[in-house]
Write a structure and sequence with these properties.
The model has no long low-confidence stretch (mean pLDDT 96). The two termini are 31 Å apart. The longest helix has 26 residues. The protein is of the alpha+beta class and 215 residues long. The chain has five helices and eight strands, in the order βααβββαααββββ. 29% of the residues lie in helices and 27% in strands. The structure holds coenzyme A.
Length: 215
């Protein structure tokens, strides 16, 4: 479903369009999700299924509770990330010796309408998006820009504990790929720092990924 060379070597990944229920959860995960509504519970269960698939490949199959501001709480030595759209759910995990932190996001193309752009994008992002003549391409790239910000947020938060809003990072598309520039200091990451972003279109869905290599 996702080409095997999309994620760098050493990153475990698992994606599915199937939905899972609470039977895939540990008792602790079942307890913490007992008040979730139906959609949230289905996302959580499917996400934990994907996450556990990845972490088990790294030797950890225990509970994955919900940490600060919703991040998945992993044991030290493992970094992981999960995302769900209505269609696709996926997770990635890696040893922190290889990647200090990783983040993924999945979005459905076309759900980032032009009327939302000012909430999601900086002026230069909007100028760039407006300059794309093809409507389909504009929809694909605007969804990728938004998704990259979410993936970047999920990558940086476990390291910085900093909430960043959607105007605190700016995405550009260069001939070599997508770049994410931080417009604020965030912990050890500094304003102006640039990170690589990876984008894969999978049918109606876009999958994005950011990684901070190990030291
Ligand atoms: C947290 C957020 C990124 C989640 O994205 P989403 O598209 O709503 O939902 P997704 O399905 O893609 O991801 C949900 C998963 O993100 C993970 N997540 C939630 N908060 C997180 C955090 N602070 N750090 C890392 N991962 C987090 C969780 O694993 C969650 O799944 P789970 O609850 O089943 O474990 C989003 O809701 C949000 O708050 N965004 C605003 C901040 C932002 O994006 N800023 C961009 C700045 S560059």
């Amino acid at each position: 479903m996702i080409p095997s060379d999309f994620f760098p070597k050493g990153i475990k990944h698992y994606f599915t369009t199937e939905k899972h229920g609470p039977d895939v959860l540990s008792q602790a995960e079942r307890d913490l999700s007992s008040r979730f509504g139906a959609r949230r519970l289905s996302d959580f269960c499917t996400g934990r299924y994907c996450l556990r698939y990845c972490t088990t490949a790294l030797g950890f199959s225990g509970d994955i509770p919900v940490g600060e501001r919703g991040m998945p709480l992993l044991p030290s030595g493992i970094t992981a990330s999960v995302s769900h759209s209505r269609v696709l759910c996926g997770a990635v995990a890696a040893p922190t010796s290889l990647y200090r932190s990783i983040g993924i996001d999945v979005e459905t193309v076309g759900r980032v309408g032009g009327d939302m752009w000012h909430l999601l994008f900086t002026d230069s992002e909007m100028d760039f998006l407006r300059s794309i003549p093809s409507e389909l391409e504009r929809e694909m790239i605007s969804t990728a820009f938004f998704s990259l910000k979410e993936a970047f947020y999920k990558m940086q938060f476990p390291l910085t504990s900093k909430y960043l809003d959607l105007h605190d990072a700016e995405v550009t598309l260069s001939p070599n790929g997508y770049l994410i520039r931080l417009l604020e200091d965030a912990g050890e990451m500094t304003m102006g720092q640039i990170f690589d972003g990876n984008v894969h279109y999978n049918g109606t869905e876009v999958v994005t990924f950011c990684a901070l290599p190990g030291l």
